Amino acid sequence: MILPRLIIADEHRVGKIPSGVLIAHALKEQGYKLKIFMGGVDETSLRCLQLLCNTPVTVLDPTLCDGRENLRWLFQQAASPDCVNLVLTSLGGRWTEDSPFRIPKECMLLAEWLDCELIPVVYSDTSSTITIRSISEVMSQFERSDNKRIHSALFRAVLSNREFELLDREAGRQISSISLGSIPRELERDTPLLTDLCAENYGRALLPLRSAGVQLKASEGQIIWGLFSALAQAAPEWQKQRMLAPPISEKANIAVVRHPTLTLGGNGTELLFQALGCDIIDVPLEGNVTHAVPIHGVYIPHGMTHLSLPRFFSNLYLKTMITRAAEGQFFFFAEGGSAPLLGETITLPSGGRGDGASGRGFGLMPFSSVYKSTSLGQALKVVGFRKRKNALISGSQEWVWGYISPNLLINPTDPEEVCWEVREGMDGKPLWNDGWSKGRALVTAMRPEFWSCPESFRRWLEG
Question: What value does the CA radius of gyration of the chain take, rounded to a whole number of Å?
Answer without folding.
Answer: 23
